[in-house]
Amino acid sequence: MKAVIRLALLPLRMAPWAGLAIGVLIGFGGLLQFFLPAGKAAVTLILLGVGLWFLWMLAGFALKSIAQPETLLLPNFHRALFTAAALWGLTFWLLPAAAIVLLFSWQAGWWALSGGALAIAWALLSSIGVRGAMYFWVLFIAANLLPKWILQMLVGVLDNPLLPAAALLLSVLLLGIVWRRLFPHDDPTLPETPFLPPSPGRRSGSRSPLPASKFRRRFNEWVEVGNDRRLQRCAARYQAQPGPVLERTLLRILLFPHEQIRGWLGRWVVYGGILSIYLLTIGKGFSADWVAGYTVFLAMTGLNTVGLGMPRLRPSLLDLYFDLAPTTHATFKTRLVDSFLGLLPGAILSAYVYTGLVSLWLAPHALIQILATTTVLVPPLALATLALYINLPEGKLARILINFITVAGQVIAYWMTYLLLSHLGILAGGGLALIVAWAFALGTWQAARQHFIKSPLHFDPPVTQPG
Amino acid sequence: MSSIHNETRLMPTGTDLAASPPVLVARKLCKAFGKQRVLQNLDWEVASGQVIGLLGRNGAGKTTLLRCLLGLTPSTAGSVEILGQPMDEPRGERLHRISYVPQSFDLFPWMKVGAYLSFTAAFYQHWDGDLVNRLLQEWQLQTSKKIAALSQGQRQMLAIIRALAPDPDLLLLDEPVASLDPIARRDFLATLLPLVRRPGKTVIFSTHITTDLERVDADIALLRDGRISFTRPLRELHEQLQKVELTRNEGRFDTAPELPGTLTARVEAGVARYVLDRSNPQTMPTLQALAERENAKLSMQAMNLEDLFVELA
Questions:
Q1: pLDDT tier at A416 (50, 70, 90 boundaries)?
Q2: Residues B97 and B27 in one domain
Q3: Which of A25, A79, A397, B71 would suit a FRET pair with A246, their CA atoms being 20 to 30 Å apart?
Q4: Searching chain B, which residue's CA lies closest to the CA of residue A312?
């Protein structure tokens, strides 16, 4: 019983402040019921629903943290887990549904039961890191864009008494996916370089790689073959005639195996495809320069892998340290930090591809201006972004803050440069933007590079945090 | 596979070693993690050509010592010289004369074995490709396999191959055979010895597998209480260190009488038990005199390395 209670309380123990905030939200929703005029129960229901949804998200995070092969070896772990899950289900699913039956009607309760189950499955899928859970949001967005007659038809379908039963069935299927994802039977994917750029279906900096799809495995093999060939060629050339340029290339091949034509192509096909679908279906009404600004952020997502991947690279650095045989620790770090510049070509070319696509689909007449903005701004912007990420602190809050500032900075800088080029012309506006952007980028890079070089050299892996 | 027992010992021994320049000198080396002092004024000198087995209990600080010696972990105080130069900075090419196999190593898990070795070889002027190919074949390591897909033992083999290939002058191995099966362990030692028993080659390896140290006839260094208690050839340890029991014919010992050359002493069930160092010229005469005076039966027993470790570590 002790284990059941511990498991049941784990989500709140792991994130006590979030639990408190959710408790306040639910309590506030409950109190509103007494103060709001009759007929405004929807506000209460929405607040309670959102609160419960976040609570199940916490449960998902907790589940993810304990879903390790070792925990399965604990005595009666499954029984304890299922009992704790049943307690949660009773408290945060069945009881609220029963309350709705008492307050409203049987039909409303039936909907709360089935809709609640679906929401729980969605919350768990989202919190354990299943990217497919994002597609629920797409459904919501799509629902807003549907023609009226389709919406009226859907409302008619909602009256069907069998729909809640279908929702219940769907949630059972989704919970099955949750379980299989938490405790997979397949072998996990072999670890990849900590500097692998993020892509749909895989989070950057993920510590516990999940089984990869066949397509992803084949794609990775294709990229690896290209990289191995490059490495063999470069290693032979370096051995014959060592030099700093070839050394940097070798380091780039080692640390960033996906920063090569094959890796870029893969990224462009996937992101370019998603972007094109988005632009052709939803994005038609948006301004091209606004969307282009967002895609610049997309092109640079790979740069933050440096900050996220560095702590995980530490144990491997030892080998590199002996290989490079640096004169001082500082020279070792200098060579390392300079090799990070190898991420820039991929980010810059990706920005050209994505902003070009945006212009082609939304405003072909503005192609030259958009590409000119990309040419003027993206290289210094990529350098400045890399500078911000190479010394990324290990604290989560600081990382979120830096990410937010960086993303906002990228997007706003793109819009401002586009405006400058529109008002002053490509030559004058571009020249001014070039001076300002490069001055900022070089200053930031120099400062960040010096900080990286001066920071102490560690070879030990970071302390693993749960979750 | 070459036999360890039949290999020719080319290493300088005895007085030759004393004349060899020290390859490693540690003076007053201290290392503390917070309040926990791991190394305390450690002094240690290792002559060129020695093969040293570093022994010590779990948590004695063997890994910390090796990492401090190489400058991988900053020491709290003291100095280290390696290959005749202070180890306050890596100092370039000197690192290519040193190989280190850490206790836990990641190498580059996302790389394939072949690509990893090609990458590493590119940086070394001396890289014994024939040795690498031979060992890969003998130890059945596939070059097309990813490092992450290798078992722990296979990864250790790969790390050893990588360490041996540059033909280093100083080889430091931190529990190098812990994950290897007995056959691979013997293979490793059989491969290692001919390579390192050459003038100018020095090996320090920490291990708990004392039989391996006996097999390679290493000099033994014992790390205890943050210091190197002694560094002595194994044969000398076998000859000089003895387990001694004194049993009174009438009555019991309450405390173990003091003796010169005592390494450990205790009383168990009225019997005084010692580990004595016979190299002290006063030990044996004093012991015999004590036995006569106390009317006690004296028994002496040679010790294998495991017994020594249990008694002394």
A1: very high
A2: yes
A3: B71
A4: B106
Residues B34 and B89 in one domain: yes
Looking at CA atoms only, how far is residue A48 from chain B in angstroms? 46
How many other CB atoms are found less than 10 A from the CB of residue A304?
Answer: 25
Whether A164 maps to a domain, the answer reads yes
- 150-209 in chain B: CB under 8 A from chain A: 162
Give me the domain span that covers residue A142.
2-182
Q: Do residue B110 and residue A324 have CB atoms under 8 angstroms apart?
A: no
Is B294 domain-assigned? Answer: yes
Answer yes or no: do B118 and A235 touch at CB < 8 A.
yes
Whether residue B107 lies within 8 A of chain A, CB to CB, comes out as yes
Say whether pLDDT at A463 is over 80: no
* Number of domain units in chain A: 2
Instruction: List CB contacts of A102: < 8 A, sequence separation 6 or more.
Output: none
Share of chain A above pLDDT 70, in %: 85
Pairwise CA distance, residues B131 & B162, whole Å: 10
pTM for this one?
A: 0.72
Structure tokens belonging to residue A114: 């089935």
- Radius of gyration over every alpha carbon of chain B, rounded to an integer in angstroms: 22
Judge whether B139 is closer than 8 Å to chain A, CB to CB. no
Q: Is the pLDDT of residue B267 over 70?
A: yes
Query: E strands, chain B, where?
Result: 22-33, 36-47, 51-55, 77-82, 85-86, 98-101, 170-174, 202-206, 219-224, 227-233, 241-248, 262-268, 271-277, 296-302
Contact B122 A239 (CB under 8 A): yes
Kindly provide the ipTM of the predicted complex, given to two decimals.
Answer: 0.80
Query: Which of residues B16 and B233 earns the better pLDDT score?
Result: B233
- Are A254 and B108 a contacting pair at CB < 8 A? yes
A124-141: average pLDDT: 74
Looking at the structure of chain B, the number of domains it has is 2
